[in-house]
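Recap for those who missed Tuesday's class. We walked through two folding examples back to back. For each one, the amino acid string is listed first and its predicted structure tokens come directly after. Nothing is annotated here on purpose, so try labeling regions yourself before you check the end of the notes.
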Amino acid sequence: MKRSVLSTLLALAILLMALPLWAITAETYTLSNGLKVILKEEGKAPVVTFQVWYRVGSRNEILGWTGLSHLLEHMMFKGTSKYGKGEFSRIVAKNGGTENAFTAQDFTGYFENLSSDRVWLSLDLESDRMENLLIDPKEFQLERDVVKEERRLRTEDDPKSYLIEQMYGVTFLTHPYHSPVIGWMEDLNRLTPEDLQRHYRTYYRPNNATLVVVGDIDPKSLISRIRESFEKIPRGPDPPAPFSTEPPQKGERRILVKREAQLPFVFLGYRVPNFRDPDAFPLEVLATLLSSGKSSRLYRSLVYEKKIALDTGGEYDPMMADPELFYFYGMTQPDQAPETLEKALYEAIEKLKTQAVSDKELQKAKNQIEAQFIFGQDSNFFQAMQIGTAESIGAGVAYLTTYLDNIRKVTPQDVMGVAQKYLHEDNRTVGILIPLKPEQ
């Protein structure tokens, strides 16, 4: 048993020492039309993930036209003059692959996971729909109804999601992050096929995209085939830069949402910097200390010990194009008031401001971050997602290369410093869900 544990620790140590070199092996190219291509050879299995990332999301939308990026993601599967409706997915499935897409605030991505000898399918399919998408008015109407129903199910009929959406609208007054990725229902109702066509022609250009391929590939031969498929697509005008300035917050903001629900829910959001600021690394460690898993400070204190909450958690994602939120949340026990839970959350935060975290607890948090990052390298898909995200938000592959070194450098004083700097009342937005009984 001891030998097994020692072997595992030794293997992890070897991975830790070797990891900073992983991103250096990725080969980067830029085609004549501006398309950036990043290829990473991973020969562990004869499979490949092929991903196309467009630098457009809800951050690039304005009020009145929110939801365009997400709706366009849906329409990208509706066919071109070469491949009709549904053929894209059928072809991939017929060849034993899987495909899907995602839209976020800063980007929209499309991917196929295939056997490595089928990578030519992605070259053909993705280059075709980058340039030749058809937006049929009837298909547009059908897909818009699908998105509206998705919004009803995921947001309007979910009290917690509804609260978070409303809270973002209060937190960001001018920045596009105030709007949901799926769009506001009123905007979805007024969108037209012409709006979608304009959005497609503006942002779905090779000079606004990154192609990431990770897996059992030969980069030198694959880049030749990529040039043949994609370089013929003409470069478009550079898309307009999104309006991304948010004025400083001058005091606490609060929002109460009264909805039919079973239990109160408390959500705390603090304005913090993104990856561009060195504070991002101690903030990430701080988030792990407070809210990552059932051994975190918040869960141990509020769920196990004080029995105030049924559940707690939180998140900080530095990988955003612009500064976003560092947030915590909790759902009360049936016999507890939201005010009690809110106070307990503040007490846990204040403790980090006045008492330095122990070396043991700090190392545990760093180990959690490192383990998640390292073991993710076993997945071609995870690696490509990391690369695509970093490139799409402006961090670049270099950020990933030095990521763990920067996490390891975080000290107890760094954690205390960012807690004092950012987790204070004037920088806070509070959202509270007040449950209503069905008859109300």
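Example two. Treat it independently of the first, because the proteins are unrelated.
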Amino acid sequence: MKSSWINGQTKYTHPSVLKISNTLKARKIDNFAKWRGEAKKSGLIPSNYPKLKKSGNLAELIGLILGDGHICIHPRTESLRISLNKNNQGLIERTAFLIEDIFCKNPHIGRKSYTNCITVTIYEKFLSKRLWITSGSKKNIVHKIPSWILSKREYKIRFLRGLYEAEGSYCIHLPTYTHKFIFKNFNESLLEIVYNFMIQLGFHPHTSKYAVQISKRDEVKAAVELLEFRKY
């Protein structure tokens, strides 16, 4: 049987398919309504999206997203994309594990051409609302941390772990015996949150324009161990 010309084509690859898509959209015809209904009945597509279970893994993932992630709103769904250094295989695997644990689905892991960037991506409805994270650019957002993270020391630690894995660095300069544990970010509210959390956990950080830093040798060691920084 001869295959149809439309097989394998999408509105992004064929002008005729794009014309059909635009015509159906203009006439408000949902060409996939029947299929979508059957898919929901069979469980292929979730019929509802319950609140995410509050846990240390979720707190850590939220920290990772605020550091290296981005939520984008699409017409019928939302996407979560976390961009990571391809040389940090441990963090890539941990990020995928956290997403699988929380959303019960395997994320797509891909490499951006001509860069050292690996992206870990999932698509699902209501990601922004369920993760308590504003979609779009994060630079000037005034971040508000969910009250359930504020309520437990364990959740604060895991939240900070996600942030530091995304935007943190641990440095030792042997000639001067200098130790530094640094979190860098351009968002002022996020820097303030990290500073306050570190204070609450018993550390004595100091701030610069785009960083929160701990410099006392014993505190640096304790903070790195507490957050299990770079331990996968």
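Answers for example two:
The two ends are 52 Å apart (CA to CA).
The longest helix spans residues 89-103.
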